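The instructor's notes for this session suggest beginning with a concrete chain rather than abstract definitions. Hand out the sequence below and ask the class to guess, before any prediction is shown, which regions might be ordered.
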Amino acid sequence: MADQLIRATAAEGGIRAVGAISTRLTEEARQRHQLSYVATAALGRTMTAGLLMASSMKRVGSRVNVRVKGDGPLGGILVDAGLDGTVRGYVGNPAIELPPNAKGKLDVGGAVGQGYLYVVRDIGYGYPYSSTVELVSGEIGDDVAHYLVNSEQTPSAIVLGVFVGADGVTAAGGLLVQVLPKAARDEALVAKLESRVAALSGFTPLLQAGKTLTEIFNDLLGDMGLTIFPESQMLRFHCGCSFDRVLGALKILGEAELQDMIIKDDGAEATCDFCGKVYQASSDRLAQLIVDLQTEAAISD
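After discussion, reveal the predicted structure:
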């Protein structure tokens, strides 16, 4: 099943729901970064959460940055997700592996540890909106729900899952359900919704059972006036890094540093943290950057 995101409403617009399948993009991230089992689960959940949060933004080009900074051996997570359905991300220690937790599942919480969740929403103009909350469990889903309730004052339930085996990621995705102000006063509706979300055994078991996003929405909200938007959005792992950007970053180092690279290393090598792509800049290319800097300095004088 292709990676995709669909949106829906229920309770006459009082409930907003978004569902995402992110199996392929999570597997691509696993391969790019050579992730362990637990690191795959942690990054996959966070990338899905980023896409679910970005889906509510309105302006073309809007993006959400999600940073999980804990004191566990994973060393942190950074994800960049866009309204356009693109996402990229990485973890601090991709090789870390831990025994299963008490429930027999991948111990994402133990890998993340205690710390903070940082969210930055960039709507494409003005200053980005940023907020920080303490991690609740390190399992990502609980932490994002805690952020949405406390920083955006929107009661939310989020279910995230990644199933990774010997052959890689075979199921990944998530579901975000939010109660908007017009429905928040209906205590019976909220209790009913909470009960149904709590009864879910997870998200990946639903995908493994062959459920589509539409079927999952119908099971959860079908008797609450569910309206599923007809358009589905394709999702993919994408990084906007380029050789030109690498050269721009090298140029910022200045003439002396570039000259030192030419003498000591006969060039420069840079690796993109987000996608793992390696860029090589020859000594001739660095020499041209020095010429460019000298020319710019002469013009400014």
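Then share the key points. The chain has eleven helices and 14 strands. The mean pLDDT is 93.
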